[in-house]
């Protein structure tokens, strides 16, 4: 027997929009008559379509999940990712037996503890201690088990001082700390966690992530984790299940699906670079303008670069005047709109005069440190430390970094501000 | 792979439709600690931040008894079968309250706990069971009051005669609990789909009290409507209760048997319907 912990076969779940059940008693009767007496297929199940929240469908019955199949091995930490409405929560609800599937079957080996919310069943009038017992019992712990772990739970929560105060007097952070502390001490072979870490301060979040990592790695437990916080998905899970409109898309390594997830959410960045006149230029003095931008030789489309490829950005500048002491500024922006690097030609003591006519500039980044994703940039031509700007062009798509070889190395690449060592201006 | 094999190999199989009789009572037993903690929660949270605390358990039946004595006993002059009036009403009210509390509180169990039920799995039957048990605590306290009154009337020479049928008391309590539970479960299951029932139940219970022998003895009921009152399963229970403790009332084998049978049918029906509803109610509530 293989060590499969969860096996999901042909799982579907339908919802009817707007109303409950089939809505009317007469349709309830019809359904009952057709399925139970005539043994026909359910007449209200046929008109299904996928769940796409943006497009209005013709039928008001939607599949929240449709024919989902997957298997999860014992001891795996699996992230479930997908856009809003992709069926993540429905899947977790079915797995934690809060609701039943419409068709299909799930086989589970081991005890399941699910955390779709922290602090379920907390009663505001009861003290912290009393709520630990109540919440623990709701989550499926026996009283003895809680007795044994009580000190550990209180210690983990860090609210020892208030443990005999009614929880209605707690701050929301303390409340969540206490609630998570209970949940973190569940003894089960399978742990299902929805986005419960969105609350609590940074210190506590870190502690929770640590605890969950410990759970999946140290104790050999199977963990299913849903979150929009890709950093924590990356940190906690090795595999991911990507859901797209209720169908399971793929099960793959977390790093890969994380990239996918980011890209599906950022479709606004186009693959074409348009005429430069298309982009916003808050400050343009027609005496000197940027005429052409090309990255690694590509002028009008976005250049796809591998993780370790050198980056060359070329600018063609048309000038009607001659100037000395020109500076060229690049601001590189990632697809979330965050500025992650600025490159200034005078930092490398590169000072070149501009002559009347066409001038070429080139910057070479031999040391590519960008994480996979699409990048754009602001480019400016200035003089005398930005006191005069000849041309300033905003948010031009530049290049895309691809993880062609699917190496895991890029995970080490920092997310914050980048500094480059090997910059050459020409 | 057939079904039996599947169960042997896996600890848990989640499937859309399970048999109506698959009640998962083993799970209910496993979660018994939760039952006690919920009872404790209900009891503790009831009197937190009150001055009189558990005394509130006494106040309600006491005042109801006083008012009933005044209105039905003195103004309307209804018969009490020769029993001291307050004692007569108190017996009826205590028993009726327990049943009515069980019924009304279990009848909103899905709605009141939609939040918890939507987030975590435990055998849903635990919730209504905990309601019945925590009402039992309240009932116990009110019985104390009743005993104190009995002692008072025994001392002052009121005419009542407890007899051997007092031994039926545990059976009667169980019957009231299960009857309230069973009916409540049916109603709560139906209210998830058809909300109207929720409105019906609150005043329905009030009206039903008048069709039960709480404020009058069965012997005083007009012959024309007596069958109707006897059709009410609570009548048999309250009559037996009064007969055991006070020596007046109509305890017959047929009326007792009828209420036992009715209770069992209501309970089985309630548990089955509840069990079927709990699987999908999260999507409909």
Oligomer: heterodimer
Query: Segments of chain B where pLDDT lies below 50 for 5+ residues?
Result: none
How large a portion of the residues of chain A is in β-strands, by DSSP E?
25-35%
Cα-to-Cα separation, first versus last residue of chain A: 65 Å
Largest interface, with Cβ-Cβ < 8 Å? A-B, 44 and 36 residues
**Coarse morphology of chain A:** elongated
Globular, elongated, flat, extended or rod-shaped: what is the shape of chain B? globular
Helix residue percentage of chain A: 10-25%
The H-and-E topology of chain B, N to C, reads as: HEHHHHHHHHHHHHH
Indicate the proportion of strand residues of chain B. under 5%
Low-pLDDT windows of residues of chain A: 265-269
Number of helices of chain A: 8
Q: Structural class of chain A, please? A: alpha/beta
| Average pLDDT, all residues of chain A | 76
By helix and strand content of chain B, what is the structural category?
Answer: mainly alpha
Separate helix tally of chain B: 14
Q: What's the total number of strands of chain B?
A: 1
Helix content of chain B: over 70%
């Amino acid at each position: 027997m293989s060590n499969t912990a969860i096996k999901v076969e042909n799982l579907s779940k339908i919802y009817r929009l707007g109303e409950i059940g089939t809505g009317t008693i007469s349709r309830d009767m019809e359904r009952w008559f057709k399925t139970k007496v005539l043994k026909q297929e359910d007449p209200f199940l046929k008109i299904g379509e996928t769940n796409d929240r943006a497009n209005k469908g013709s039928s008001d019955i939607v599949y929240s999940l449709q024919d989902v199949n997957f298997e999860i091995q014992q001891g795996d930490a699996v992230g479930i990712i997908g856009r809003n409405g992709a069926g993540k929560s429905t899947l977790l609800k079915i797995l934690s037996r809060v609701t039943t599937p419409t068709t299909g079957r799930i086989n589970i080996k081991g005890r399941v503890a699910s955390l779709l919310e922290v602090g379920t069943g907390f009663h505001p009038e009861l003290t912290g201690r009393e709520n630990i017992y109540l919440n623990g019992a709701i989550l499926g712990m026996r009283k003895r088990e809680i007795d044994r772990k009580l000190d550990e739970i209180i210690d983990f929560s860090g609210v020892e001082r208030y443990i005999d105060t009614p929880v209605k007097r707690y701050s929301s952070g303390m409340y969540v700390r206490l609630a998570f502390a209970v949940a973190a001490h569940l003894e089960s072979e399978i742990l299902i966690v929805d986005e419960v870490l969105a609350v609590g301060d940074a210190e506590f979040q870190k502690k929770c992530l640590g605890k969950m990592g410990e759970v999946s790695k140290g104790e050999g437990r199977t963990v299913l984790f849903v979150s929009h916080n890709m950093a924590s998905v990356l940190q906690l899970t090795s595999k991911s299940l990507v859901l797209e409109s209720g169908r399971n898309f793929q099960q793959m390594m977390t790093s890969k699906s994380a990239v996918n997830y980011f890209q599906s959410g950022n479709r606004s960045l186009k693959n074409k670079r348009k005429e430069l006149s298309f982009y916003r230029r808050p400050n343009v003095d027609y005496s000197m303008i940027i005429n052409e931008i090309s990255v690694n030789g590509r002028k009008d489309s976005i250049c796809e670069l591998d993780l370790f490829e050198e980056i060359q950005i070329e600018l063609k500048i048309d000038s009607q005047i001659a100037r000395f002491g020109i500076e060229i500024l690049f601001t590189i922006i990632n697809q979330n709109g965050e500025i992650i690097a600025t490159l200034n030609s005078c930092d490398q003591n590169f000072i070149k005069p501009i002559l009347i006519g066409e001038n070429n500039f080139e910057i070479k980044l031999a040391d590519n440190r960008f994480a996979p994703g699409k990048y754009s940039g602001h480019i400016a031509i200035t003089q005398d430390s930005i006191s005069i700007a000849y041309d300033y062009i905003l948010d031009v798509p530049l290049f895309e970094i691809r993880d062609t070889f699917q190496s895991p190395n890029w995970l080490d690449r920092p997310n914050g501000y980048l500094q480059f060592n090997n910059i050459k201006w020409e | 792979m057939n079904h039996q094999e599947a169960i042997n190999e896996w600890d848990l199989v989640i499937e859309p439709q399970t048999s109506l009789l698959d009640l998962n009572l083993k799970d209910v037993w496993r979660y018994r600690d939760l039952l006690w903690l919920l009872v404790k929660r209900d009891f503790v949270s009831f009197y937190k931040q009150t001055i009189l605390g558990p005394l509130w358990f006494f106040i309600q039946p006491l005042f109801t008894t006083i008012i009933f004595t005044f209105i039905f006993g003195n103004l309307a002059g209804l018969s009490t079968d020769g029993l001291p009036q307050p004692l007569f009403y108190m017996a009826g009210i205590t028993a009726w309250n327990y049943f009515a509390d069980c019924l009304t509180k279990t009848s909103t169990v899905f709605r009141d706990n939609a939040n918890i039920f939507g987030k975590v799995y435990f055998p849903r039957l635990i919730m209504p069971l905990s309601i019945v048990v925590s009402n039992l605590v309240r009932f116990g306290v009110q019985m104390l009051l009743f005993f104190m009154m009995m002692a008072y009337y025994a001392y002052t020479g009121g005419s009542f005669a407890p007899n051997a049928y007092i031994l039926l008391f545990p059976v009667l309590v169980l019957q009231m609990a299960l009857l309230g539970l069973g009916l409540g479960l049916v109603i709560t299951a139906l209210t998830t789909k058809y909300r109207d029932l929720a409105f019906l139940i609150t005043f329905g219970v009030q009206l039903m009290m008048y069709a039960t022998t709480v404020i009058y003895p069965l012997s005083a009921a007009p012959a024309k409507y007596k069958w109707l009152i006897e059709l009410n399963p609570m009548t048999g229970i309250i009559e037996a209760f009064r007969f055991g403790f006070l020596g007046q009332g109509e305890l017959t084998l047929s009326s007792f048997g009828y209420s036992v049978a009715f209770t069992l049918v209501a309970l089985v029906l309630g548990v089955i319907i509840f069990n079927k509803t709990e699987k999908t109610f999260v999507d409909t509530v």
